[in-house]
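Reopening this one. Same input as before:
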Amino acid sequence: MSINSQTNPLRVINTPNIVPSITSEPSPLCRAAQIPSIPLEQLFGSLSLHDQNAVFSEPLVKIKSTKKQSKNNAPPIQTAKITKKVNRSFLHSVAESWRDLAIKRESATFDEPVHTISPAQRDMAEASIHITDALTRHLDQNTSEVPYVAYDTTHQAQAVALVSFPEDKTPSLSLIATHPNNIMLSSNGARPCRGAGTALLSHITHDIMKREAFEDFSVEALNGAVPFYKKFGFENSRRGISSPETTALVLPARNMQRILKKFEKQSRRVTEQQFEHDVRHS
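Same output, byte for byte:
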């Protein structure tokens, strides 16, 4: 099984394996990803704040659309919770293709004229490799983490989040990774997807609220991604442990309903079966 990154990175074809990438809209980068210390709003375009400095590959950004969205049109980003082993394996192959693509894009930055690629952009390209590699490893090894995927209207996966739901502890975000192409390395590149990160956080928050006794939602975010999380509604955590590179944040349960009201119309939650129909079998 392999992925064709030239067309739909989610469609399986019989060709040599390609590779993975990072997040931008905030790729809610966490320490687990071990990414360089770069402003995450820049690295994660899809998950970024209101389109600000959205350049990275683990998107967590506000959704932008070139056309006005009618009430009958589907939102530009749809999200699904993944529970089936076959779909998890599919996301693993997607993550591998993202990582391979991230490696190629980072290598290509050294072929460009020095004045066209800044050191920060090269750092972001390198970070994309780290985060997509982390996603690949987590999907392969840590089966206790629940994957959530965000995809666009062309049925291409744009971001993946991994969440832990321990029975006796606060749910926590392990990482969010985005399609490498969501990291803008040149003005000639494709327009990056926006809104995937925020859409994933909204879906996860919705699921937390469905639990019988839902609790706060925590994340150990890279310092550069803190503004994105706080824009969504996260606050500094008194119980979490921060480090020089990361900040412990929490989304208080008391604020979840209000936050969902603000963000949930920007995307649409779909069933895992719908995801299979739209992405795996399209």
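So the earlier flakiness isn't reproducible anymore. For the record, The chain has one domain: 2-280.
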